[in-house]
Amino acid sequence: MKDTFHVGPSLAVKFVAGDQLLCAVGPFLHIYNVTKNRLIHKVRIFKRNKVHGIAVSEDKLAIYGGKSVSLVSWEQLTGANDVSNLEHLSPEWIVSTEFDVTGQNVFLLTCYNMVLVVDFASGDVLQRNSLPNERSILYSGSIKVLDRDHVLVNAGTVMGGIIVWDLHTGTQLWNLLGHEGSIFYVTVSDNGKYVASCSDDRSIRLWDTFTGKELSLAWGHTARIWNLKFFDNDTKLISVSEDCTCRIWSVEHTAEGIELIAADTFEVHLTKNVWGVDVNEEKMIAATSGNDGRIKLIDLKQTTRMADEMEQFDIKAIEIHCNVRFAAGEIIKGFHCFEFGIVALTSGGHVLRYTFADKSWVLLFTDQRFLSYSITNGVTVASHNVVIFSNNNCDLLLVKFTDRGKIVDQGKALKVTGLAKTTNVMCTTGDKAEVIYVTVESPNPRDNFVILAIDSSTLEVIDRFNYGKPDSFVSSCVTVLDHYILVGSRFSTVAIFDLFNCAKNGVYRIDDLNIGDTTTSIEHVETKQCRHLFSVTNRDGYYSFLAIKFDNGISHEVIHSNKTVKGFLERAFYNDEGDYVTYGFKSRLFYMYNESKCYEIMHHMCGGAHRQWGLYPVGVKEYILVYIKASQLHVLRIHKPRVPEFLTAGLHGREIRDLSICPRARATNENEYLFVTGSEDTSIKLNTVDKLTGEVTTFWTERRHISGLQRTRFISDDLLISCSALEELFLWRVDDTFARGPYIHMLQSLPVATLNPDLRIMDFDVKFTASGSFILATVYSDSSIKMWHYDNESNNFNVCVETRYKTCCILNTRLIQFRDHLFLLITATDGHAVIYRVEQDNDDALPNGLAPVVSQRIHQSGVKAVDVKVTESTLTLYTGGDDNGVCVSVFQSVPAPAAGGFPGFELSRSEFAHSIASATVTSCQLFDKGSKLLTTSIDQIVRVWDASDDELPLKLIESQYTTIADTGCCDVVQGDSIVLIGGVGLSTWNM
Amino acid sequence: MGKSSKDKRDLYYRKAKELGYRARSAFKLLQLNEEFHFLDDLERVVDLCAAPGSWSQVLSRKMFDEAEGDVQGKKIVAVDLQPMSPIDNVTTFQADITHPKTLSRILELFGNEKADFVCSDGAPDVTGLHDLDEYVQQQLIMSALQLTTCVLKPHGNFVAKIFRGRDIDMLYSQLGYLFKSVVCAKPRSSRGTSLEAFIVCLDYQPPANWSPKLDNNVSVEEFFHDCFVGINKLSLGDDSQLPEWHESVRTVAPFISCGGLDSFDSDATYHLDEGDMAKIEKSLDPVQSPTNPPYKRALELKRSGKLSSCV
Ligand SMILES: C[S@@+](CC[C@H](N)C(=O)[O-])C[C@H]1O[C@@H](n2cnc3c(N)ncnc32)[C@H](O)[C@@H]1O
């Protein structure tokens, strides 16, 4: 067995010269070149312990983690893949290391407030210093070398005190009191003036090193804070927290004295915990690392780096600039932004233009038809920049601009006839760049819904299409593909208008795509085998992917659905890296979010969603956000990132509770398998693993569950089920036919028994019947067992059996076909395995009862994991327990009595292997055609057993330590010798 | 913090309320005792990491309320980082048990007398860093053990909470050096989903060639240095160099599940009717929840909307 890929908590990051970043990844260090966004070296530092921190002095490093420490040169580190032969042990857990001024000696601070002074070259322990009477346990501490004679030791106790002492004199300077609870980090500024600290009370405090006074108390983080660092000449402090944010504070001299003021917040990691932080002060980039295994970079100058990011204009300034007089209270009613600049329309009918090149405003013309009510739309097609102004009187005015912003002709005015009024006008262009499609909507339900086709060079109306307006339809967004116009509406509706068919049946309608209201965008993604894939967003945060077929009449299928983290969703698109990017508003912020990788790309305080705004792509990967706030026009340039947004994406921020690999390799790449992970963080992720490199890529994070995942399993090549507490059980379908990647959609959820479901569904199993329908067994925390029939035609679950085992919690279940009969196995917290015969009227009929066949105690307490081998005449259970043991139980089949009745089972042999592990055995999985058994346990040892015959006891073939803590689940690609191990992180192994 | 309805439906929680215990933990000690009977005939005991105090309550009931003979000279000392409201017949004080001074203070309270039972239900602030959490947990046990070696009479017993994690087997081998029998036990009242279990160490056998010496300037690790030198190989040769990494000695302790299958299953969901729920609500003696968490102020600020994920 060999582990090939690992993602798990990263506890520390450290910038070193040459734009390199050292990242602690379990017992390894990964070295990245930050500017090139490249992993340049991986090296094992310790045998078992995780790397917790790194101190650097020129070409020397002191790396520590737990009781382990390694003093290595840069050459040793980069010259090998494994330097764990240099691992040494400290007598106590190390909380911090630092070099002295000469770089010759290393200080190791232990959790019992002792400093070992170690000679770097020889490894000799030169001194052991401690502070008399202060030897209680510390969660945190740091050493600050001010100069040769002044070295401060800062010790954070568990009772709120921070003891600052002088290393050389061995005397206490201060016991800084104020915090409550354990101190989780303490650090001293480079100039030695300030101590900054944080504790379980979630506050950050700034102290005066010379007087011991508390200077400032700052609140902001909503959970515990794990790390702090001064930067920018000690004028700023950066903090990272359990709340997944990284915050910037400025150290300001105010009338009140010296204060810590909140300056910025970045949401950087997934629930929960950001552990490591460092700042490259020259480049002003921060790096953070978290429990999710992600290495995130933050441009600390994202909105000021180029100095052209923000422009704002109030109406007075524009007035002066344009040399016109606006009426009192005249405001900007609408605008559109092109590469060259912005075209805006005021409530006084003034059409204005701002050009970026010369930063000038001019009045283009005034049109009295567009007073008070007006809508401004714009579109760029094949170097035609067209603005369409409209009012509620069915007037349209089309104006065309050159690439440099000059008006071509004087514009085209037209009146849309036959409508009482117009409430909405929208425009779009398709692949046929020469045509602009304009939709015109009247509030009168009896009026037609009109689509105009306009020649983009002449601005002449080529064609007009009239449709009966669909019921309760309020258009909100539009796109075109071939001769189909797709229009989004309120009530989560999409209507497709066939331009070749204006009759009533020319409109195809998709209702209630999700429980949100207004559809905010529809975008064509790709077309494969006549299936056209569209991404659809909804303001209430939902998004879906629709596969639409246009041949033989229009038909559609939802192949993906999800909800964004929070806030309003305005649009989404695929970026150049193939990541799905969403944007919208949350509270007073505008945000852009990378949905595939789950991180915020940017946010901007614009005041919230209820305002005039638009986001416009310009140049390569750049955007301009234009919005009006406090009657000022704001123009924010969102430059393409100057630094990579992350170095490695990471996975779940909390324990992976279950994982399951799709039984079939991907059609698009036979070296890859899809797999799903379900986590304590309540999400399930759809990922791929490469069987050659072991590398894992995540495509989607589904947020449908609201409680921590219990189980998730592929039940066929394209169906999977997930279950969790609150009686949540969802059936999902995976579609992996498109080039962009796989999609996942929830088909159905299991009906719940009560209004306030609070049972945990602990496990499930299925048995397919004919034609894609199946029988589902579910087991619950209140000892109940249910069997259901899922009918794939009607997409419905119907319960057929409800019974109860005892009162204890059931942990596992399996449906077992044995010869002609179906059996149900359960295991529970009382250490028992029970086999029931599933009663059916005949072989094809639905189950109608469960008859216990055999009940056997096989473990002392909870039977945590089970796998089953069926042979001609026996059933063998392989079980792992909370009692640290693995048990093999062979049940012999007992034929039906001659007098009538049913066949059953009886225990023929069993062997309990005690104390196999030193902690709970959490998973059992047979592989290699049932000849081998893989077990995982909390002691972080993965074991492979010989299960080729039923000979007992089991023979251990191999065992190996895994760095995945809380090891809880595994799955094997049958026949392809790849194993995935999950817990706090994920490992790929090769057998 | 209010208890969620899930907590209310927890049968141990409910039973704790009915019997006047401050925490459901009481049943863990009781169920361990059902198996090992270490609570019979106790004279002097130490309850470490005792807040809110349900173990102390159990001890007080067993040693005083249910005592048949003379209770003169009996003593219970309970210590925690958190303040504890008074319990009959229990001397409580607030301190950090990893601080050697705390141990000196407990010794003072016992005068020259030895205790016959020491228990510790200590659990640190869990950070989410599994290795650190496990280490700190083990340090709490080692601090408890440090006191135990100073105060426990030969053949006395020691019980402590453990997390069954990666390095638990190292602890077993150290305990096995000091006690005749070491068992890892999990009462049914401890949730199967948690790593929690208890180490039950019976029959203290102080090593002949080592005598414990409490010193305020010595950390727990240093205290045991000479004691475990044989099994730990902590120092190879002398102290002038840091030893190279080596695998520690590991022993697996036998596992026993206790509390009987007829006792409540702490992982199960029980169905209670409205009447049951109402009875719980009304029950007079409330189960104590953490009264003053360090983050109380932060919670107040969060509730009033002063802390948020944006600037
Ligand atoms: C699970 S509670 C104990 C419950 C108690 N046995 C009862 O039945 O009420 C764990 C306790 O350990 C305490 N603790 C943790 N670290 C400690 C330390 N270093 N010194 C003293 N107490 C500590 C905590 O304050 C907490 O009250």
TrEMBL record, chain A:
Subcellular location: Cytoplasm
Extent of the WD repeats: 176-217, 218-252
Keyword rRNA processing: no
Lineage: superkingdom: Eukaryota
Example GO BP: endocytic recycling
Gene3D superfamilies in UniProt: YVTN repeat-like/Quinoprotein amine dehydrogenase
Keyword tRNA processing (UniProt): yes
UniProt-listed Pfam families: WD40
Assigned GO CC terms: endosome
This protein's UniProt keywords: Cytoplasm, Repeat, tRNA processing, WD repeat
InterPro entries on file: tRNA_Anticodon_Mtase-Reg, WD40/YVTN_repeat-like_dom_sf, WD40_repeat_dom_sf, WD40_rpt
GO molecular function: enzyme regulator activity
Family indicated by similarity: Belongs to the WD repeat WDR6 family.
Protein name: Uncharacterized protein
UniProtKB/TrEMBL annotation, chain B:
Key word Ribosomal protein present: no
Keywords: Cytoplasm, Methyltransferase, S-adenosyl-L-methionine, Transferase, tRNA processing
Main location: cytoplasm
Gene Ontology MF: a single term: tRNA (guanosine(34)-2'-O)-methyltransferase activity
Residues engaged in binding S-adenosyl-L-methionine: 53, 55, 80, 96, 121
Any one Pfam family match given in the protein's UniProt record, by short name: FtsJ
Subcellular location: Cytoplasm
GO cellular-component term (any): cytoplasm
InterPro entries: RNA_methyltr_E_TRM7, RNA_methyltr_RlmE, RNA_MeTrfase_FtsJ_dom, rRNA-MeTfrase_E, SAM-dependent_MTases_sf
Signal sequence annotation: none
Catalysed reactions, semicolon-separated: cytidine(32)/guanosine(34) in tRNA + 2 S-adenosyl-L-methionine = 2'-O-methylcytidine(32)/2'-O-methylguanosine(34) in tRNA + 2 S-adenosyl-L-homocysteine + 2 H(+)
Assigned EC number: 2.1.1.205
Gene3D superfamilies: Vaccinia Virus protein VP39 (3.40.50.150)
GO terms for biological process, alphabetical: cytoplasmic translation; wobble position ribose methylation
Active site: 161 (proton acceptor)
Known role: Methylates the 2'-O-ribose of nucleotides at positions 32 and 34 of the tRNA anticodon loop of substrate tRNAs.
Family: Belongs to the class I-like SAM-binding methyltransferase superfamily. RNA methyltransferase RlmE family. TRM7 subfamily.
Name of the protein in question: Putative tRNA (cytidine(32)/guanosine(34)-2'-O)-methyltransferase
Lineage: Eukaryota, Fungi, Dikarya, Ascomycota, Saccharomycotina
Protein's gene: KNAG0J00840
